[in-house]
Design goal:
Blueprint (H helix, E strand, L loop, with lengths): L9 H16 L9 H28 L27 H17 L5 H37 L5
């Protein structure tokens, strides 16, 4: 399955999974939640997801290194500051939170399977190959960082 590694941009993945979740929600059972609670929980989760995504991008821009995760060989600097002190993959955490906000908004807990699928796919086909490249490029500094900061949260 190496042909899937680093091929599908994470943004495309969440768009596809998000659309599938929206379509599937019409056929799945829903939980009865007061509309204000549903919208508020969805909005808070969406904002948290956007915060993680934008903070990750801004930190990469600040260090003048690539944001495109499909080409880890293009990474010019090791970033372990800002949001990267909380998560090694804040943009992916943000994407997962955005998908969770869809689950809240659509009130269908079964849709969490879409979030789980995203996380599993990301771990295997995006994060693991990225970590191999980062270990090769930054050696013990990256290995020490991995011991200190969690992959997700």
């Amino acid at each position: 399955m190496k042909y899937l590694e680093l091929k599908v941009p994470p943004l495309i993945q969440i768009i596809i999974i998000g659309i599938l979740m929206i379509v599937a929600s019409g056929y799945l059972p829903k939980v009865s939640i007061h509309p204000w609670i549903r919208v508020a929980s969805s909005a808070v989760t969406l904002m948290a997801g956007m915060y993680f995504c934008f903070s990750g991008v801004l930190e990469f821009r600040r260090h003048k290194t690539t944001v495109d995760p499909r080409y880890p060989d293009n990474v010019s600097k090791f970033v372990d500051s800002g949001i990267y002190t909380l998560s090694r993959n804040p943009m992916y955490v943000g994407f997962a939170l955005i998908l969770i906000s869809i689950v809240f908004f659509l009130s269908s807990p079964v849709l969490l399977l879409g979030v789980i699928a995203f996380v599993m796919y990301m771990n295997r086909f995006q994060i693991e190959p990225e970590e191999v490249h980062l270990s090769e490029a930054f050696g013990e500094r990256y290995e020490a960082y991995k011991q200190k900061v969690r992959r997700w949260l």
